[in-house]
Amino acid sequence: MLLFSLSLRRSALAAVAALLLVLPAGAPPVAARPAPDSFADLADKLLPSVVNISTTQTLKTDKQKESTPGRPKFPPGSPFEEFFKDFFKDHDTPQSGRPEAKPRKATSLGSGFVVDAGGYIVTNNHVIADADEITVKLADNTELKAEVVGRDTKTDVAVLKVKTTKPLVATRWGDSDKSRVGDWVLAIGNPFGLGGSVTAGILSARQRDIQSGPYDDFLQTDAAINRGNSGGPMFNMDGEVIGINTAIYSPSGGSIGIGFAIPSNLAKQVAAELVREPDHTVHRGWLGVRIQAVTDEIAESLGLDKPKGALVASVNDNGPAQNGGIQPGDVILTFDGKPVTDMRHLPRLVAETPVDKSVPVTVWRKRKETPLHVKVGKLDETEQVSAKEAPKKAPAKDDAPTVSALGLTLANISPEMKEKFSLADDSKGVVVVDVAKDSPAAEKGLKAGDVIVEAAQEEIKSAGQVVGKIDDAKKAGRKSILLLVERQGDLRFVAVRLDQS
What we know:
Layout: H1 2-5, H2 8-22, H3 40-46, E1 50-59, H4 80-91, E2 104-116, E3 120-124, H5 125-128, E4 133-137, E5 143-152, E6 157-162, E7 172-173, E8 184-189, E9 197-208, E10 218-221, E11 233-235, E12 240-248, E13 259-263, H6 264-276, E14 285-286, E15 289-293, H7 296-302, E16 310-315, H8 320-323, E17 331-335, E18 338-339, H9 345-351, E19 358-365, E20 368-375, E21 377-378, E22 402-403, E23 408-412, H10 415-420, E24 430-435, H11 440-443, E25 451-455, E26 458-459, H12 463-475, E27 480-487, E28 490-497
Parallel strand pairs: 7-12
Antiparallel strand pairs: 1-2, 1-4, 2-3, 3-6, 4-5, 5-6, 8-9, 8-11, 9-10, 10-13, 11-12, 12-13, 14-21, 15-16, 16-17, 17-18, 17-19, 19-20, 22-23, 23-24, 24-25, 25-26, 25-27, 27-28
């Protein structure tokens, strides 16, 4: 209790003294870079390269909306969001006898920045989505009509073009990978239509996944970002763009110090391709694999020192991965010389790789690293992968060997089992006919009708083989066994805890 009665000054001195005691002898002191005396010179230099973007959109009348019911939805932080919230609040209840309403115009505000003196401007796709007209206002209040050059919905990046009689003030891209957590940053944009607003903060975190798209890799900052900042630049202290301010986390709609920006290394590549390609679209690399996360249990069962990489659950027939020698059960550790830190990292690395480029890939196979080479294919953006839920069946009670260590009742695949669980004619492995409640298998979501194709990365042809593989894993002192499970055509690996008793 005495410690809580000490003054703040004495507590601080005690904390410093304690810190000095634990520092090793001769250790260099940790010094933070001092805050700038002022951001004025830098802001003065950067403001002319940032633009305000206003858009107009024609709203449909009630009769026009009959074929497409429901209000529009926009990403978090979209400047359209608040307007539509208020508009539909007043118009959701139809009034009898009222004459048909005329089409209304909705206006919206956002931000952008000049990347080429000839008139190319980068912003967020959601800033200009569904807009009928786009107007760009420069720092000197000059207003110019803009046309959309190209847009990429998956990364929320868009490029605009304006016609101008004089060169615009362009900014330059920076290397977002070199930016460190704790570095000072500036955000410039058009919050709430005020225009030319500068806020300062630090880089709070990296590699944030906010579930907005398949390639989420956001920078996080505590620089104030509000509605209307979307599409504006985040600068480092060298005056380089290291991010595009895109979204905020806020229960109230205002800034609470959690903003997100698309890293410049991703945005720069997307923007350049939107301008360069004849069809003004992004051509992404494709590997042709279905992957899953490497958990602690999966890492232990495969002999990895820690969870890392991306586990290949299946490969597409005649796809780049299969042609390059990648197999189900491999863990992709590196791709094109870059480490694959986790499952989410691999799709971004592959997507950023030029189509038809041959890249080195390192996989973990049979408890050792195996080098491969893969020629990257082209991703078909329209390709959709779906899995239908298997029809529910009552647990079967047929005679079958019981694998007590996993809580499974298994049976060899037979015509009766195929009919009972709606299995494909070419199904291979053994079928799960029952799962004990609260068992290790139940913990991992296994259920009746699942087919075990592999155990410990070995093909399974009979239920007795599974028992043998479990015994082998126990003798080797492993804590779990890796199973390749098929459910209605969808393959995935599951590491099931072993019952050592």
